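Table S2 (continued). Query chain:
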Amino acid sequence: MGRESACAQFSGIKQVGFYLVMGLVSLLVLEVGFRAVLAFRVGPSVLYYGTRFYRQNVPAVANNHTVMQHGSVQPGYTKFFANELKVDHDPITNESFKVSINSRGFRGGEITEAKKPGVTRIVTLGSSSTFGYYDRDNETYPYYLEQKLNKGAGATGRFEVINLGIPHLHSDEILNLFYVEAIPLHPDVVTFYEGVNDAARGNPSRNEAERRKTVEEQKQSQPGLLRGAYGVVRDHLVIVAFIDSIRQNMIAEPTFNRGQVERHMTSTSEHFIGNIDKLYRECQQRGIMFVALKQQAKSHMVKEADMKGVTYAQEVQMVKAKLEKEGAIKARELHLLTHSTLMADLEQWASTNMVPFVNIQKVLDRDRDVLLSWVHLSSRGNRMIADALAEEIVQLVGHHTVRQPESRTQPVGSLGS
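Corresponding output:
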């Protein structure tokens, strides 16, 4: 009996092992197939999901000067690989199209570091709405801006607009990118159009002690190794990440009470404005004109069909009313409230410091159907931004002499805190 029992047990183990191996093989086959399909949808880079080749990570160091002086929790920034093949799609027609990535890892044609004499060089900073999610190469607002300025200037090529927008970046990373990528290009004008990504972030740690405390609290709240292992698998397998997103959409969304909302808005705004101020001071020291833009966004609280005619302020008020009535709001609603605080504080900061400011919320308020998602714009929306921004830049340049590149190099991030 003992021998028969041992044999049966061994046979059972072999059977379990066989099913496990078959399950893993099936998962890998699905993973490979899913990545192959997505590669045609968003570009070959998805094949490298979960590896260091998925997005180029740039360390926060340039010219032997650290750019961590502004206290960023996350060092450096990310951008695309040189000449990366990237694909996007039109959400209305569902048509796929190629996106041009140059040798520097940014959108658009090649960028020469040396600026031609008499040319006003403009660098646009931001994230996906500046990069141009859902937009073809000739439909982004930086593209339209260059066309508009040169048409009005009466001399082709007098203005050059360089799109340094990279999807998913928040103000920490944009500031890092500015130090490393924008300064060597000797721009005459720098524009900033962002806010949503900061609004959607968790509360930033303002010092190392607070950061360690937050990490420790997170560790204590996690139910052991199983959840950690699942997180690793999700971050390396596209199919698992996809299933996880479906799972999250099927369960109840987390909600946030008044206290949580207030704390998030206050700390996020302080961090955001602090980064903008450092960016502006660096521009000021280098003789670069800085233009801040008030970003348009939505929470998805209003149906797409009803979006046109509902202003940004009206939607914000709807969220506030819901918070007052129910005592809690969902994540995307929290993000809109936080975004409204960031944009209000940005406008106040610009007024206090006499910084050129373009209110894109006002420009798009009666045509918010140009928002294809919570912040991404249609070509019509991008053209409206370009028109408003061009008007401001023409006025600025008319009162300034176009700078030529300086012969001496100033320390990167020299203003520090």
